[in-house]
Amino acid sequence: APERTLVLVKPDGVRRGLVGEVLRRIEAKGYTLVAAELRTADAELLGAHYAEHEGKPFYPALVEFMASGPVLAVVAEGHRVIEGFRVLAGATDPTTAAPGTIRGDLGREWGLRVTQNLVHGSDSPESAAREIALWFPHL
Ligand code: CMP
Questions:
Q1: Where along the chain is ATP bound (predicted)?
Q2: Residue 103 marked in a binding site
Q3: Interatomic CA distance for residues 100 and 76, integer angstroms
Q4: pTM
């Protein structure tokens, strides 16, 4: 069965008008869009989404940044899409992310306290299932 992953275009990506560019790359790779919703996440949703990072030095700024404006939440489907989207996204740090990747080509800002790196993608089948249930409870 094809895999599903949760992709977020973060507030920096929405503010910079890069939603279409991120979706284009997902579709060009051959993945299918299953769901997409533009919304501003609240602290409860972000706390659950980033539970594994709670307590890390960058966590408060991360949640503040992620709540600073709308994000586009997307469920994408396809063969090995979890790993495949993370390759499309590139390394966490936009400065060193490889050219050809979303962050390598388009990533710009390294915020004072948090990495503004345009996109999020689930990192494992377990995370994908958990994150899709949080953002799209009806799926
Ligand atoms: P994401 O894939 O959404 O998962 C956690 C996020 O925390 C990550 O992308 C970055 O935006 C941010 N992040 C991860 N590591 C660091 C770090 N060392 N310093 C600041 N922000 C980080």
A1: 10, 58, 86, 92, 103, 117
A2: yes
A3: 20
A4: 0.95
